[in-house]
Amino acid sequence: MALQAATSTFCFSAPYLRSTPNSLTSNRRSISIKATSSSSSSRISNSGSNLKGRAVSSEGSTQESPYVVCFGEMLIDFVPTTSGLSLADAPAFKKAPGGAPANVAVGIARLGGSSAFIGKVGEDEFGYMLANILKDNNVNNEGMRFDPGARTALAFVTLTSEGEREFMFYRNPSADMLLEVSELDLDLIKKAKIFHYGSISLITEPCKSAHIAASKAAKEAGVILSYDPNLRLPLWPSADNARDEILSIWDTADIIKISEEEIVFLTKGEDPYDDNVVRKLFHPTLKLLLVTEGPEGCRYYTKDFSGRVHGLKVDVVDTTGAGDAFVAGILSQLANDLSLLQDEERLREALMFANACGALTVKERGAIPALPTKEAVHEALLQSVV
């Protein structure tokens, strides 16, 4: 699959690596655009003259009714070419498309599943590049919108020598924050089997209202709701605000994936390895709660059973996107057969597959460029039992 746009290396002088203060409110109206002028239509390959604010996939590149629709942010990650240095000391950065919901959408498609992405980017070179990357990876991008007054979000990633990362975001505001309810493709949402989202889209209006409206439409249509909070504290006004907003939609989700660190945060410091603590987060209508533990694998909790599935040991280069690859792995399996939720043995097999997806992703830099194919995952699983 062509990802040439995702492998460029950019060099920046240290004086320009300044963080722009976050602006969490905006009185600017977020609008859809018709990307049909000569300056923009050529940037989205094979897009027709009836675009009307959406980047349409080329004919035959996606299925008509995607199994999994992913909602939220898509952005550009700038990943340092050398690990273990501060952003100011990094000699160069690799440009990589990212954003958790978009990563999941591409991950599912790369595994052979059917997916779509709904979100907003800037009417700029990066925005058009991201729309094309989705299309090139067989992700339905008809729900994507472009904002002429805001830029596509950027994130600079600091990598430790072990491949762990920290983020510095450029959103002032970025286009993803400005998606409006009126711009939602509700038909696309209602046709989904699973609707997946995070919490970053809850931070500010108008995107918060769009998020809530999209989730409501999906729920009313009988679509399974999948939630990965994907905590990014620097983006929130305060830790308390982040906790309150993340939990405000908790009880509507059917599937929730969280990390050990997020359990500590949401429970205000309780032990993430204590099953009694985790069970506090299991609401009455939840079908599956997943706790990821990095290289150690994951834990799973349903109403009837719980357990642990060990992960694969690999050499870590960059952990960006590992959790998203895991989510893509499990959702791709559940989209094919939701009865896995009632069969512990088969669910464990699906989680072994998801763990392998996450493990393979950390072997390369960047999120989307590193997401594995189904064949690569099966090969890794076979090698792990040899």
From TrEMBL:
Pathway(s) the chain acts in: Glycan biosynthesis; starch biosynthesis
Ranges where the Carbohydrate kinase PfkB domain occurs: 67-373
Extent of Low complexity compositional bias: 28-49
Signal peptide location: none
Keywords carried by this UniProt record: ATP-binding, Kinase, Nucleotide-binding, Transferase
Coiled coil: none
EC code: 2.7.1.4
Alphabetized PROSITE patterns for the sequence: PFKB_KINASES_1 (PS00583), PFKB_KINASES_2 (PS00584)
Catalysed reaction equations from the record: D-fructose + ATP = D-fructose 6-phosphate + ADP + H(+)
Disordered: annotated segments: 22-58
CDD domains in the record: bac_FRK
Function: May play an important role in maintaining the flux of carbon towards starch formation.
Family, similarity comment: Belongs to the carbohydrate kinase PfkB family.
Listed name of the protein: fructokinase
Gene symbol of the encoding locus: LOC104701236
